[in-house]
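Appendix B. Worked example

We walk through a single record from start to finish. Start with the input: the chain for Tat pathway signal sequence, Meristemomyces frigidus, length 267.
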Amino acid sequence: MDYKGEGQPFISNDYDQETLPPRRPERFSPTILVALGISIVLNLVVVYRILSWSAAVDLDQRCGSYTEQYDSPLLDAIPVRYETVRYNGNLLKENIYRGPPSPEVDAAWDELGANFGTIIIPETGADRYGIDPGMVKRQPSRDGGFAVQAEGFHHLHCLNLLRQATWFNYEYYQELGDGPFSNEEPILRKHVGHCVDILRQQLMCTFDTSIFGQWWVKDHGNLVDFNTDHRCKNFGDYRDWYRERAAASKGSLVKFREGDILLPEIP
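Next comes the structure step. The output line below is what the pipeline stores for this chain.
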């Protein structure tokens, strides 16, 4: 038998190429064209919806919620709005918050909310805020509710206490004997130490990655400019909302109730 050698095609190509009919240009069927058109339209709709959604999303609110471990009644009541605020970092020019101790200075800190008390929130849904069902509640005859405090105002309280306890202010507040200074010195030391450490943790948790520049200053050389711009929450709105509820909660009587938890030591 006569076999063709390796490398030879199994089917001969010896036909005349010019005898083949010309190839017709490929055409899409109407069905394919319709499907392609529908796909383009749907993709345009999806892109439009995404762009519309992005424009409508309140990024301030999403950012404010994302950076909190739990929901908050403050966030539920008032949307977060970030605004640019320039810090007053001048080293020598004092303002009311860092002046020598006086009733006026204390009133300014009070206005910030440094001495706000507790507010009452409904018992239903409080687990969203990180509140344990066994925590302190108001007595049922006063409609119940959990007694809570906003952490931000506690931080202001602590900062104010550190201001009062500095050596050049201590004597003034010790003589007044109000608030934390009504306690014996060992307790006051514990209170101040608590405030130092809670502020340390807060500053580390919300670590500011902004940077300071420096200026050449006549007769002083190069000095840091602490007057920097920051994106800040709408603090005044939250202060006003909380102050109204703190005032309404004054005199609210809490009572140990069935299901409440009694801890063996201070948490």
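Two observations about the output. Strands lie at 83-86, 119-121, 146-148, 213-217, 221-225, 229-232. Confidence is low (pLDDT under 50) at residues 2-13.
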